Amino acid sequence: MSRGITPRAQGVHPSTLALFARQEDPIRVGTQFDVAFDLSCPHGCEEEPVALTLQEPGGASRIMKAPLANHPAQFELTAPTEAGAHTWQFDVAPSGHDGLFHEASSMSLTVDVVPHAASVAVWALPDAVISGRPFNIKVGATSTAGRAIAGQTIIIHDIDGEEVGRTTLGDTAWPDTVGLLWAEVELRAPDQPGVATFAASLVVERLKLPHETTACTFTVPVTAAPEHCVTVTVVDATTGAPLPDTLVRIGAYRSTTGDNGMVTLHVPKGSAEVVVWKTGYDAPDCPIEIVADKAIKISATAVPEDDPDAHWKG
Amino acid sequence: MAKNNNSGNSKSIQGKNISVSRRGFLTRGAAAGVGAAAIATAGSQEAEAQARWARTADVVIIGAGVAGLPAAITARDNGASVIVIDANYDIGGRGILSGGRLHIGGGHALQQKLNVKDSADQVFLDWIRHDHADSRYSDRDLVRVFADENVPTYDFLVANGVKLIEKLVGPEQSSTVPRTFLTVEWENPAEIIAPKRQRNGSGLVRQLALKAREKGAEILLKHRMTKIIRDGRSGRVQGIAVTAEGKTFNIRALKGVILATGGHTGNVEFRRMFDPRLTEEYQQACQPWVNQDASGEIAAMEHGAALWSTANQTTETAAAITKTRHIGCQWGYSSLAYEPESPMFKFARAVGLTVKDWQNVVMVNDRGKRFWNELSGDYDFFAAAMQWNGDPKKLNGGGPIWAIFDAEGAKREKWITQPPHVDPAGYFFQADTIAELATKIKNPHQHRPIPGNVLQDSITRFNGFVDAGKDADFNRPKPVHKIATPPFFAAWSTPILHDALTGLRTNTNSEVVDLHGKVIDGLYAAGEAQGGFSQHGLARCLVFGRVAGRHAAKRRAIT
Fold first, then answer.
1. What is the DSSP secondary-structure string of B211-228?
2. Which CATH class is domain A13-114?
């Protein structure tokens, strides 16, 4: 069979306009997003771009061009600045030439536009804070609206909902983060020893675009003022060799041993547990009564190391 | 405007490119349809009755791995002509990625040299022990053969140039004397699939493949068995149907067909016969190099073959399922990781972050909730990971498990949280806050987004346990590190499946037995495709590969 140019079809064909795909992530207020749709003819016609009227949720309309073809076309739309369901209306006018015409078609797209999302992180917390004394922490926030939150306020509440501190976000991102704007804030430790709970939240009322926020709840141990030095030496139970780089906790205070297996912690009076952690070792928790400076030695027993290659090594 | 790219029929428009050309798709679809029709025709009974044999050998072996290669050598040693096919582009199966751990004893020369007293009877007694879960469910007929064939198998390896490290690794599983040895890694790194990971098994399969070829066995790579062809009247297996590069043809086996296809762990439908929890999110060790697709088992079961000793798959002692050790990549099995030097790296996409201290992470399920003590890695941990997590649309399997850690944890572990160490395409995520991290976790197996406040609550609660010095939820020993310093990370750490511990029923000749207890004439199984006992490692594959190759070679040929 010889191949020639297919003669142009004649007559009036329908056209169909249908959604092909839209951005899967939530569509946030005031942001641009992509939609793709098919404008096609059931007979498989391919025609020059035709006029398409887009009526936006706010009532404005604009005219664009879309190909009548067998592949989807993509458009960028802008979400309104108010959250909620919004509808875009697309209308394709009748078109045609040289005896082949395509009927009008239309489509509407309703999108649930959601507020921006902001959330908070709190770090650089002291291992423990002294009752009644001030301490510093770092707070940061990130938003799907990017730097729109620069200069906004973060408020810290205690467990009773009382504001105990506030700070203003700077305009530089914390190292290695994408856009975590941050600040330091000074808080005062409660008078009662124990574990104190706080929550840090971003104030969003003054932002132009609506935001939903996730607060960051955090805890800090509160103790009496340290009065004594406890020196802990950790050794290998079998060889007696010092164990460096071993984490030692006395109550809420912690540090790691040096090359000589020793660490000195400044701790409050009272009873506490000495807890030792080193990968591949096991050491029992050791209760102590702290009434004066003291030195203790803890033997850690090597346990067969959970080496991923142990199964295979000779 | 619309653009095409090469990513197939995807509707995602996260990027700017639209990926579908309908004409392209239709063209491809039409071609695929023709191919499917061709296969269906070739597989019909009519075609089978008039089967034309493209190739013929006395013994046809499916799988050039730890069972198939010794079968090929042994069949050649017994005078049979041999064709081995393998679906992969290279030989070795899972054995090439193995650490080379070989459980072989009975009093062989190396044991004697190292002053180990052992005997075939002792091997037998150890592997039928009632007081050990690894041996309790063994088929004692098969264990007897295994025991008696240990020394001859050792001698076979030595005779064929396989080198063992002259060192005792120690008794293991139900053995009472040292029988575990390691093969010496293959000398050419270019021929080791994961060359930086002590893949000692490469020295076993490369050497056996060398010998098999030297002795005249033909190994056809990128050939996939599609079915076993059996004579309708006599019931004798005649050969197999094969596809290679889109062509389908038949290979005749005058004496026998040996299934050495590997196990079933990578086949979701098949493995769920033994444990319905093992849904699709659980990956298989040694993927993407090889997929344990149960093709041998299924092909044999289509002819009525039985499975055997299936309890072994679920004794919860052997390495049927393991804790992911390299997190942040799709396949983080224990000692195996694909470095950028590996030919598999392109497919594996990341090496993974090796966890040295689980104190540095908190593990959450696909709801963002902790589920167990992260320092544990036993079957209670796996059961907790696979528990129902409340998804009304998914009652089996527990969904993905994510290891959550912060910048300080990464620093303590000296992790580099960038490719090639991690796979941001679904298996590793970074964010500025914990709540934001939850929204970033996207993976084909993560069916619902993790609510940001739920993950934040899980981490806040855990951090409180660090302050208190006690994990009130799961009693994780000595919680020592808070997860607080940005940025934050989520790394895939879903448990990964390993050994197939059940398979086809065979008799002591490795001949496949059907549901009525009758031998399927001319069909053999060895290796992980064979059921019987649940030993981890290479020895049972080698032993029964030899047994099958020898028995098949000695049979009378079809005339």
1. HHHHTT-EEE-S-EEEEE
2. mainly beta
Q: How far is A249 from chain B (nearest CA, A)?
A: 8
User: How close does chain B come to A146, measured CA to CA in Å?
Assistant: 12
DSSP one-letter code for B130: T
Q: Pick A295 or A47 by higher pLDDT.
A: A295
Using a CB-CB cut-off of 8 Å, the residues of chain A touching B13 are 21-23, 34-36, 74
Main-chain dihedrals φ then ψ at residue A131, nearest 5 degrees: -55, 135
- Of B255, B253, B247, B246, the C-alpha closest to B229 is B253
**Which residue among A25, A72, A120 sits closest to B433, beta carbon to beta carbon?**
A120
The residue-averaged pLDDT of A203-207 equals 92
Contact of B28 with chain A, judged by CB distance below 8 Å, is answered with no
pLDDT bucket at B334, cuts 50 / 70 / 90: confident
Does B457 lie in the same domain as B491? yes
Residue with token string 């070679």: B553
pLDDT tens per residue, range A35-62: 998 898 988 888 888 889 999 998 899 9
Two tokens, residue A97 = 């030439």
> Domain locations in chain A?
13-114, 117-223, 228-302
Rounded to a whole number of angstroms, the distance from the CA of B282 to the nearest CA of chain A is 19
Q: Does B425 touch chain A (CB under 8 A)?
A: no
Contacts of B198 (CB under 8 A, 6+ apart): A309, A312, A313, B99, B185, B335
A161 at B interface, C-beta within 8 A: no
B464 interfaces chain A, CB cutoff of 8 Å: yes
Distance CA B352, CA A101 (A): 58
CATH of A228-302, one of 2.60.40.1120, 3.40.50.300, 2.40.50.140, 1.20.1250.20: 2.60.40.1120
On whether any CB of chain A is under 8 Å from the CB of B480, the answer is yes
ipTM of the complex: 0.89
B420/B541 same-domain check: no
Q: How many CB atoms lie within 10 A of CB A56?
A: 15
Cβ-nearest to B469 among A20, A173, A275: A275
For the residues of B293-320, what is the DSSP string, one character each? --HHHHHHHTTTBPEE-GGGGGSSSSTT
Q: Which residues contact B243 (CB under 8 A, 6 or more apart)?
A: B39, B223, B224, B226
- For residue A19, the chain B residue with the least C-alpha distance is B11
Task: Give whole-number Cα distances, A243 to A276, A298, B257, in Å.
Answer: 11, 10, 59
Residue B184, CA distances (Å) to A260, A292, A312, A313, B208 in order: 40, 60, 12, 11, 13
Look at residue B13 and tell me whether its pLDDT is greater than 70: no
Q: Does B380 touch chain A (CB under 8 A)?
A: no
Partner-chain contact B16 A220, CB within 8 Å: no
Over residues A272-286, the pLDDT tens digits come to 999 999 988 999 999
Inter-chain contacts counted by CB atoms under 8 A, chains A and B: 169
Substitution target in B13, B353, B441 with the highest count of A β-carbons within 10 Å is B13
Q: Which residues of A touch B430 (CB under 8 A)?
A: 178
Candidates A35, A177, A247; nearest CB to B486: A177
Confidence of residue B10 (pLDDT cuts 50, 70, 90): very low
The DSSP line for B265-296 is TT-HHHHTTT-TT--TT-EETTTTT-----HH
- Asked if B1 has any chain A CB less than 8 Å from its own CB, the reply is yes
Looking at residues B441-463, what average pLDDT do you find? 97
Show which of residues 196-225 on chain B sit within 8 Å of chain A, judged by CB atoms: 197-198, 200
Q: Which residues contact B156 (CB under 8 A, 6 or more apart)?
A: B70, B73, B74, B542, B546
Preceding omega of B70 cis (within 30 degrees of 0): no
- Give the separation between CA B319 and CA B325, rounded to whole angstroms: 14
